[in-house]
Amino acid sequence: MKSYRQELWFQIPVRRRIVRITEQVVECLRASGIREGLCLVNAMHITSSVFINDDESGLHADFEKWLEKLAPEKPYSQYAHNGAEDNADAHLKRTIMGREVVVAVTNGELDLGTWEQIFYGEFDGRRRKRVLVKIIGE
Asked: 33 lies in which domain range?
């Protein structure tokens, strides 16, 4: 069995943003040479997320509204975590959206559904963060 590892780096200039990263993951898969196996993609920071969903701007706006209702950014004083930082809401949003995805690899392709895309969700941007892509298989 072969193993391949690559880090993707992001520096989002705003606090929150959803970024499609499917193409970068496909490039990792091509570089790996693996034809059958599994591809893990996970956020390596506790205020960002990796998830799979539809690439539709209305849906992304709905995510933003929904997450803000569940874990509003302000007032900062509502969170016990906020003190030296003001990002408690980002930790909660990450927990809701998830840390990672695993996608099957078949015939050298990601086995994604018709409308499925892989996304990086940033909830406390303005600093450099990474995503791990780990592919195992034959």
From this structure: 2-137
Asked if residue 23 lies in contact with residue 87, where contact means CB atoms within 8 angstroms, the answer is no
User: Where residue 99 sits, what CATH number does that domain have?
Assistant: 2.60.120.460
Considering its fold, how many domains does the chain have in total?
1
Interior CA angle at 112 toward 106 and 118, to 5°? 120
pLDDT digits (tens, 9 = 90+) for 93-136: 999 999 999 999 999 999 999 999 999 999 999 999 999 999 99
- Contact criterion met (CB below 8 Å) for 29 and 108: yes
What's the Cα-to-Cα distance from 32 to each of 4, 27, 61, 108, 138, rounded to whole Å? Answer: 6, 9, 34, 9, 10
User: Which are the contacts of 127, defined by CB distance < 8 A and separation ≥ 6?
Assistant: 11
Backbone dihedral angles phi then psi of residue 117, each to the nearest 5 degrees: -135, 155
